[in-house]
From TrEMBL:
GO terms for cellular component: extracellular space. PROSITE patterns: ADH_SHORT. It comes from Petrolisthes manimaculis. GO terms for molecular function: oxidoreductase activity. Keywords: Oxidoreductase. This is Uncharacterized protein. SUPFAM superfamilies: NAD(P)-binding Rossmann-fold domains, Vitelline membrane outer protein-I (VMO-I).
């Protein structure tokens, strides 16, 4: 937003002073927004808001400068193939609906002087017209419906959360050799926004309480990233989180890598007569083979590695958590978990 304002303030005076009485051709200002300027999208709130600002500011400026020889245009494209969209084959391969950057620029330039606010690319304009029908959800619906022909995306709405859901290609879960899962309740499945994947994680851990009840692992948070080397972090997702402990430092894969495997350290339910802790720690592996330890507690033993199929990465999480048992009783906190693998 700041760059749009500063650039306008920098170039506009020169355009205005360069006009002559014989010509009104003072120049053109073209600001790039996004189709998300029209639609709120879960997990992309800041991005949508900034694009809405660019669109609103540009349209206001266009009317203010009407008849003064300066053309102001706003572009609101759908997806365009760039380095920021190379995180999945669907957005990295250009075609009719997803043009290359050069194709988009060529088409957008041809609209200059003919349209004040446009997608700049006729297939994108057609998408907007098609998605303006009544059966499109208000929140993120335009993006979801546009992709339903090629994916299994849908909107899930609960009383507290609205999120995208992708049908995973695999579920990663530790072998329940301890029988611990019967002690907790499964929380909601939470996934990274579509076309984003987990590249880092952090654990909420209660350290050894020595003479008092210990719960060890209380929660897991996945850090979602859009794209690889040029992608940005778009947020975190967690399922149910127990109330004890503190969040550990974030463990992150090397730039350009996503998480693809997990290994759980779990204590058997019969290991202690008074203080069971169930899941204690979590290792996660990255695409390049690196292993990240979450920094949990040391009770129990490590289970087998569970890894996503080739061509997929971790995109979501569901946790099984025991609710607080009350004073003088043994709390388990996070009992077990499973993670979703989605196609890259």
């Amino acid at each position: 937003m700041a760059s749009v304002l500063m650039m306008t303030r920098l170039v506009l005076p020169g355009m205005m002073s360069g006009r002559s009485s014989s010509s009104k051709a003072g120049g053109a200002i073209v600001n790039l927004a996004s189709v998300l300027a029209y639609y709120p999208l879960p997990h992309f709130g800041v991005y949508c808001a900034t694009k809405a600002f660019v669109k609103s500011f540009s349209e206001s400026l266009r009317w203010e400068l009407s008849g003064m020889g300066v053309t102001v245009q706003t572009l609101t494209p759908f997806v365009v193939t760039t380095n920021m969209t190379d995180y999945t084959k669907f957005t990295a391969t250009h075609g009719v609906l997803i043009p290359s950057a050069s194709t988009y620029v060529t088409c957008a330039l041809s609209t200059l002087g003919h349209a004040g606010c446009t997608t700049g690319y006729w297939p994108h304009g057609l998408q907007v017209r098609l998605e303006s029908s009544d059966d499109v959800d208000d929140v993120g619906g335009v993006v979801v419906k546009a992709r339903q022909t090629t994916t299994t995306t849908r909107i899930i709405t609960t009383t507290t959360h609205t999120s995208f859901y992708r049908a995973p290609v695999a579920l990663l879960a530790p072998d329940d050799v301890t029988g611990a899962s019967m002690w907790g309740d499964w929380g909601p499945n939470q996934q990274c926004p579509e076309f984003t994947f987990a590249s880092a994680f952090s654990l909420k851990v209660e350290n050894n309480q020595i003479m008092f009840d210990s719960t060890a692992l209380n929660g897991v948070s996945l850090v979602c990233r859009a794209g690889r080397r040029h992608g940005s972090v778009v947020g975190n997702v967690t399922s149910t989180v127990a109330p004890w402990g503190k969040w550990k430092a974030t463990r992150e894969c090397l730039p350009g890598e996503f998480l693809v495997g997990m290994q759980v350290r779990m204590e058997g339910m019969s290991a202690s007569l008074l203080d069971n802790t169930a899941t204690n720690d979590l290792n996660m592996s990255c695409e390049g083979g690196g292993v990240l330890n979450g920094g949990g507690e040391k009770w129990g033993s490590w289970g087998k590695w569970k890894k996503c199929p080739r061509g997929s990465a971790i995109c979501g999480i569901t946790t099984n958590v025991q609710e607080p048992q009350g004073p003088m009783l043994d709390d388990l906190a996070l009992v077990t978990l499973r993670m979703d693998c989605c196609s890259l």
